[in-house]
Design a protein that fits this description.
single chain, about 110 residues, alpha/beta, four-stranded parallel sheet, 3 helices, globular
Length: about 110
């Protein structure tokens, strides 16, 4: 990440930064996190969603042990993340690839 992108991430609001990264989200959302992956376009967030600070989204990876076991160095896992309307995600959560969080859910902090 170059210095300009670091400054943008530092000074831009979490909502504007999410939009800049490519996250799709509905109306009346509130984010405190800026931890978006490079494939943020794979994340769809409904309306009236709250995401607390230091929550991290991963849209790929998580299978390094399987890659080693089967000796397939280029094996990787990509998956969309969907978050339903009226959902709240707490502090320090990790959301992995392929996860769907339903409507009106509360995901506890880590």
């Amino acid at each position: 990440m170059n210095i300009v992108n670091k400054l943008i991430k530092l000074f831009m609001s979490p909502m504007r930064y999410a939009k800049r990264c490519g996250v799709k989200f509905g109306e009346d959302c509130w984010f405190s996190t800026k931890n978006w992956p490079t494939e943020a376009y794979l994340i769809e967030i409904g309306s009236h969603v709250r995401i607390a600070g230091n929550t991290t989204f991963y849209t790929h990876g998580g299978i390094s042990t399987i890659r080693k076991y089967y000796n397939v160095p280029k094996l990787d896992r990509f998956g969309k993340i969907k978050v339903g309307d009226y959902t709240s995600i707490g502090e320090n959560c990790i959301i992995n690839p392929g996860v769907t969080i339903g409507k009106c859910c509360i995901v506890g902090g880590g």
